[in-house]
Design a protein that fits this description.
Its EC number is 2.4.1.14. The two termini are 62 Å apart. The chain has 4 domains: 55-74 and 84-112; 170-184 and 194-425, 3-Layer(aba) Sandwich (Rossmann fold), CATH 3.40.50.2000; 465-654, Rossmann fold (3-Layer(aba) Sandwich), CATH 3.40.50.2000; 744-1024, Rossmann fold, CATH 3.40.50. The protein is an alpha/beta fold and 1027 residues long. The radius of gyration is 33 Å and the shape is globular. The chain has 35 helices and 26 strands. The strands form 4 sheets. Strands 3-4-2-1-5-6-7-8 form an 8-stranded mixed β-sheet, with helices on both faces. It is 42% helix and 12% strand. The model is unreliable at 1-6, 15-47, 54-62, 132-158, 685-714 and 731-741 (pLDDT under 50).
């Protein structure tokens, strides 16, 4: 494989060493025998290191330790010592080969188990959906088959988005969290996080903003103020497109959200713990923008996003949480998928599952993608292959079940609470503004007409990048074979170079240009990039390709169009020989400049060439097939002209306007299935009197009340104030049913008590009551009670919570809200403990209801568990929370962990949130969008309280949603010793991601105190600068 090409050069040197050794020692060199591997070497036969490498170990091996060993080999001058090192090197490879086989065996067992679980989930779903008629099944299958014949754009039940009849003013939010994102002078290829996705999302934002009916597009990314990068990445806002006059559009903007370390540029693998902070920052921006647009366009009513679109796994999780908080449809684009990468890395056998997870945070990434699938209305893919071979690997998507559910919806048949996101193929668009009319002309002359016989005389008239490339060639007039990619082993450039070097006819007819990113010093590049570039140089030397291959060190992104033009002027060919290409945007770019293409048959190029008909597909592992395809296009001018013509004729199907029309049509169709209710922001023209007067020590409030109430007789000021407060309070209560909505008003802070204080049996401890009293007392000491609202969030039911509070010397009405049953219920004590029906409607979406009630209990038990290990806890159940009691003896051995249970529910099409609470004695199954943290986000929007003004009081451990409460813009105070027993042992399996991948380790918003006395809490609040 491409990643191991460096070994070939070493083998040749090893062979030379072996030859010299044979002459000097007359065949006395031997290798130690390895009985387990059955390597037998006859004494009279000289050991061949080359043969051993090639025949026994080289397959798919790329081990940096071998490289270091080889350095030691060539550094040793004594021949006998060198031979001994070769033997040691062979032994190391043999040992690693055994390790690889063990990894492959473990992987095969894991995959077999996973396939069995998926099949069981599919069978369970099929049994429940068995009433679907045969006619409906045939209809569903035929629809899918027909759609698969070509690259589907718009389904029969989706109306096309027309420009002339869209008077809407849509607000669209795109999210691309990682990498260096800016509108101009993109540093594509600077690192693995700043690649094609950056270019794609910026151009998508601009294209959508230029589409009629779209008022504003915001592209949210991470703000980076690190000295390592340009200062432009620290600007909070950047305009991407200026609206045209009279369009009524607001344009496209790049919004940078602070997230993670402020002065450090970190890779995407390190961003996972900081996602909640990004969510809260994005939520603040969207709410602010919704209000502003509402005042401008909607008569003061907030204008919420038309859709929230997450790009890649990290932004997909952000979009999922925002979608749940705002009740707005979500779209997901994966770009590249973690599970697919995970499977490939395991097959290579170089890294164990634990090593892969530690290096790439792959399990955390996969969970982010699964969460995106849970919440997404629609998943945008580039190719059909991406749907079937990549998304099909996920628990949350089963192609067969998705087709069955889609047919049921069309027929008006119940899906029994099951849901699968809709996958649509919408190829990425391309900006053709750089393509001139001259690029598409048939007879625009060849390079000779521009260069002339003496290129030196006309060099000043050529683009600089042309001169940079042509300086490599002996004859620059020959057709150019162009390859443009990162120096990545997966791009398979070395196989292309070998195919070119070994085909004499191709070498005589054409030159080869390799644009492999930018480099200053190969040794300073990443290991994989330096290996590829070193191999390229060695192969050029091996085949003596000097004067026939160009490999410039630098090029600007703005010069890429000129590179394509140069290849077209020479009547050349573009090639993408990648081992697997998810889409292949460079193929579309090449076609736009009139270049025929040769492309890998693995992935997106298959669909692209079906549309463009402008080239040939090849097996990327077959050198001869690559050489033959290139030779065919270069030598046959008629075929070359036909491919060029086809590409130019069909390229409009990949334009950004076409992409946006398809995109908005599909989004509009998905929105028809989304609830129409939208979150309302409560506007309060004046501060509620009954709330404001709660703190009578505030002088500014004491005499600010005006009214028509008159009191008879002479009364002192204190008594008069007291009676006035009582009168106004009675007036407020008498009007409580007249439609006036109450809220905490202009609170300065919101204190949230989330300490899960339970004993080993799940009973609420006295610590719970002490914490409530001490937090309220500390609030009075630090800030003033009238300025602070109190919220209690718990995994217990309302009845259990009321029983616990009844023995506490605190008035229940001192709380502004109670969030019960793990975020599935929201109550207001000041409103006679009436549930918030708007919140119930808010979280109801995708709630399977009764359909999951018995299934969850059955799946929560392990295979060897007894039926009574987990039973329904009827007293705590509600319409949006099913609770189950867990026997103490079954907590660890007979109960599935949360991630395992959620996986099994996903496989059956159920989208739920799973929480173990009350020291793992109780299981809550609640709606997908219900959680304690999401309830707080809901309240912050409704009440207009910024999340940075919220303080959470938690224990060191708690329910399985404890980690969700720690990250974000809010302040967190950890009360050590307050929670002796938690449910964390049922949170995740050992082979899943770790706590540090979910909770930020160094977070200035989190503080801890040793006890929970009021004065200690007040001191901690001062340390967090809460005043």
């Amino acid at each position: 494989m491409a990643g191991n090409e460096w070994i070939n050069g070493y083998l040749e040197a090893i062979l030379d060493v072996g030859s010299g050794t044979r002459k000097r020692y007359d065949g006395q060199l031997k290798i130690a025998k390895f009985p387990e591997h059955k390597v037998q070497v006859k004494e009279e036969k000289v050991f061949s290191p080359t043969k051993y490498f090639v025949e026994e170990v080289i397959n798919s091996f790329d081990e940096s330790d071998l490289h270091r060993t080889w350095v030691k080999v060539i550094a040793t001058r004594n021949t006998r010592e060198r031979s001994n090192r070769l033997e040691n090197m062979c032994w190391r490879i043999w040992h690693l080969a055994r390790k690889k086989k063990q990894i492959a065996w473990d992987d095969a067992r894991r995959l077999a188990k996973r396939r069995l679980e998926r099949e069981q989930g599919r069978n369970d779903a099929a049994d429940d959906l068995s009433e679907l008629s045969e006619g409906e099944k045939e209809k569903g299958d035929s629809n899918y088959t027909e759609a698969s014949k070509d690259m589907s754009r718009i389904n029969s039940d989706t109306q096309i988005w027309f420009d002339d009849d869209k008077a809407k003013h849509l607000y669209i939010v795109l999210i691309s969290m990682h990498g260096l994102v800016r509108g101009e002078n993109m540093e594509l290829g600077r690192d693995s996080d700043t690649g094609g996705q950056v270019k794609y999302v910026v151009e998508l934002a601009r294209a959508l903003a230029n589409t009629k009916g779209v008022h504003r597009v915001d592209l949210l990314t991470r703000q980076i103020t690190s000295p390592e990068v340009d200062s432009s990445y620290g600007e909070p806002t950047e305009m991407l497109s200026c609206p045209s006059d009279g369009s009524g559009s607001c344009g496209a903007y790049l919004i940078r959200i602070p997230c993670g370390p402020r002065n450090k540029y970190i890779p995407k693998e390190s961003l996972w713990p900081h996602i909640p902070e990004f969510v809260d920052g994005a939520l603040n921006h969207i709410v602010t923008m919704a209000r502003a647009l509402g005042d401008q366009l909607n008569g003061g009513k907030p204008t919420w996003p038309y859709v929230i679109h997450g790009h890649y796994a990290d932004a997909g999780e952000v979009a999922a949480r925002l979608s749940g908080a705002l009740n707005v449809p979500m779209v997901l684009t994966g770009h590249s998928l973690g599970r697919n990468k995970f499977e490939q890395l395991l097959k290579q056998g170089r890294l164990s599952r634990e090593d892969i997870n530690a290096t790439y945070k792959i399990m955390r990434r996969i969970e982010g993608e699964e969460m995106g699938l849970d919440a997404a209305e629609m998943v945008v893919t580039s190719t059909r292959q991406e749907i079937e071979e990549q998304w099909g690997l996920y628990d949350g998507f089963d192609p067969k079940l998705e087709r069955k559910l889609r047919v049921r919806r069309r027929r008006g048949v119940s899906c029994l609470g099951r849901y699968m996101p809709r996958m649509v193929v919408i190829p990425p668009g391309m900006d053709f503004s750089y393509v001139t009319t001259q690029d598409s002309l048939e007879n625009d002359g060849d390079l000779k007409s521009l260069l002339g016989p003496d290129r030196a005389q006309n060099k000043r008239h050529l683009p600089p990048i042309w001169s940079e490339i042509m300086r490599f060639f002996t004859n620059p007039h020959k057709p150019t074979i162009l390859a443009l990619s990162r120096p990545d082993p997966k791009k398979n450039v070395t196989t292309l170079l070998k195919a070119f070097g070994e085909c004499q006819a191709l070498r005589e007819l054409a030159n080869l240009t390799l644009i492999l990113g930018n480099r200053d010093d190969i040794e300073e590049m990443s290991n994989s990039s330096s290996v590829v570039l070193t191999t390229v140089l060695k192969l050029i030397d091996k085949y003596d390709l000097y004067g026939q291959v160009a490999y410039p060190k630098h090029h600007k992104q703005s010069e890429v169009p000129e590179i394509y033009r140069l290849a077209a002027k020479t009547k050349g060919v573009f090639i993408n020989p990648a081992l697997v290409e998810p889409f292949g945007l460079t193929l579309i770019e090449a076609a736009a400049y009139g270049l025929p293409v040769v492309a890998t048959k693995n992935g997106g190029p298959v669909d692209i060439l079906k549309v463009l008909h402008n080239g040939l597909l090849v097996d990327p592992h077959d050198q001869k097939a690559i050489a033959d395809a290139l030779l065919k296009l270069v030598a046959d001018k008629n075929l070359w002209a036909e491919c060029r013509k086809n590409g130019l004729r069909n390229i409009h199907r990949f334009s950004w306007p076409e992409h946006c029309r398809n995109y908005l049509s599909h989004v509009e169709h998905c929105r028809n299935r989304h609830p129409t209710s939208r979150l309302e922001i409560i506007t309060i023209p004046e501060e509620p009197m009954s709330d404001s007067l709660r703190d009578v020590e505030d002088i500014s409030l004491r005499f600010s009340i005006e009214g028509d109430i008159k009191l008879n007789g002479e009364i002192d000021a204190a008594t008069r104030q007291k009676k006035l407060i009582e009168a106004i309070s009675q007036l407020a209560s008498s009007n409580s049913n007249t439609g006036i909505t109450y809220s905490p008003g202009r609170r300065q802070m919101l204190f949230v008590i989330a300490a899960d204080c339970y004993d080993n049996n799940g009973g609420i401890t006295e610590t719970f009551q002490a914490i409530i009293k001490n937090v309220m007392k500390a609030a009075g000491l630090s800030i003033g009670l009238g300025k602070v609202g109190f919220v209690l969030v718990t995994g217990s039911s309302l009845r259990e919570t009321m029983q616990a509070l009844s023995s506490c010397l605190v008035n229940i009405e001192d709380f502004d809200s109670l969030v019960c049953n793990s975020g599935s219920e929201l109550y207001y004590p000041w409103r006679d403990m009436v549930a918030d029906t708007d919140y119930e409607a808010h979280i109801e979406y995708r709630w399977p209801g009764e359909n999951v009630r018995s299934m969850a209990m059955r799946l929560a038990r392990t295979e060897d568990g007894d039926k009574d290990d987990i039973t329904e806890y009827v007293e705590a159940c509600s319409s949006r929370c099913y609770s189950y009691s867990i026997k103490p003896s079954a907590k660890l051995l007979q109960t599935r962990r949360m991630d395992d249970l959620r996986q099994r529910l996903r496989m059956r099409g159920f989208r739920c949130n799973i929480v173990y609470t009350r020291a793992a004695s109780k299981l809550n199954v609640v709606p997908l969008f219900a959680s304690r943290m999401q309830a707080l986000r809901y309240l912050s929007i409704r009440w207009g309280i910024d999340l940075s003004k919220v303080v959470l009081f938690v224990g060191e451990r708690g329910d399985t949603d404890h980690e969700d409460l720690l990250g974000g813009l809010h302040k967190t105070l950890v009360l050590k010793g307050s929670v002796p027993y938690g449910s964390e042992k049922l949170l995740r399996s050992e082979d899943n991601f770790k706590r540090e991948d979910a909770v930020p380790q160094d977070n200035s918003n989190i503080n801890s105190i040793e006890n929970y006395e009021a004065h200690n809490i007040a001191g901690a609040l001062d340390a967090l600068e809460i005043k």
